[in-house]
Design goal:
Number of strands: 7
Order of helices and strands: EHEEHHEHHEHEE
Low-confidence stretches: none
Mean pLDDT: 91
Helix content: 25-40%
Number of helices: 6
Structural class: alpha/beta
Strand content: 15-25%
Radius of gyration: 17 Å
Length: 202
């Protein structure tokens, strides 16, 4: 039996909709009742007061690339439990109008646009790491910080996975045990695997 409370960070890889990501997120959040949940999908939005939760729920606007309905269940769960829900990314994931249009319309980017996407991705990863480290320093309770972000960021050689210690990372696997980082074919029997780095002594 894994003692989740003994880790500094609990990562949960998201597929951004091709499976129901919230089921696993709700399970873990209910188990550890964290002080902070950091979310890539929340981008730059910080919900750390009742008033901020109420305002966003009334406004129902996240960004051009994330719709409120996509994160509604997470927002309502964290509101109910009094958890601080912190956006850990850039607004519209750092993409300008031109790239937002490419992404929304699922067009193939040019070589120049691909380079800009790649450069933005590096900036985002640095932002993720900065936000995680900052909130670890801010945490008053000795509880893990739950971090929700795309499964791609939880590759074994990614910046986050190599830079941080004392974590467990959950990620969706296909029926053959391969980590899912993008939709492919008919995905059946998705199960979550996990990776532990510097397993703490209990």
């Amino acid at each position: 039996m894994i003692n989740l409370s003994s880790f500094s960070f609990i990562f949960i890889g998201e597929t951004h909709g091709f499976i129901n990501d919230f089921e696993k997120e709700r399970e873990i959040i209910n188990k550890v009742n964290p002080e902070f949940v950091l979310s890539e999908q929340m981008q730059e939005i910080i919900l750390d007061t009742k008033e901020k939760y109420s305002y966003l729920i009334q406004k129902q606007k996240i960004s051009e690339l994330v719709y409120f309905e996509e994160v509604k269940d997470l927002i309502l769960l964290c509101q109910k439990k009094g958890i601080k829900l912190i956006g850990m990314d850039l607004i519209n994931f750092g993409f300008g109008e031109e790239l937002i249009s490419i992404i929304k319309e699922k067009k193939s980017p040019t070589k120049l646009q691909s380079k800009r996407i790649e450069d933005t991705l590096k900036k985002r990863e640095l932002k993720h790491l900065e936000m995680i480290n900052y909130h670890k320093g801010q945490a008053k309770a000795k509880k893990p910080i739950v971090v929700l972000l795309g499964s791609w960021h939880l590759r074994e050689d990614s910046l986050l996975m190599t830079s941080l210690n004392n974590y467990i990372a959950y990620f969706p696997n296909d029926s053959e045990g391969n980590q899912l980082i993008e939709p492919r074919g008919n995905i059946k029997d998705v199960k979550y695997g996990y990776r532990i780095k510097n397993e703490p002594k209990n």
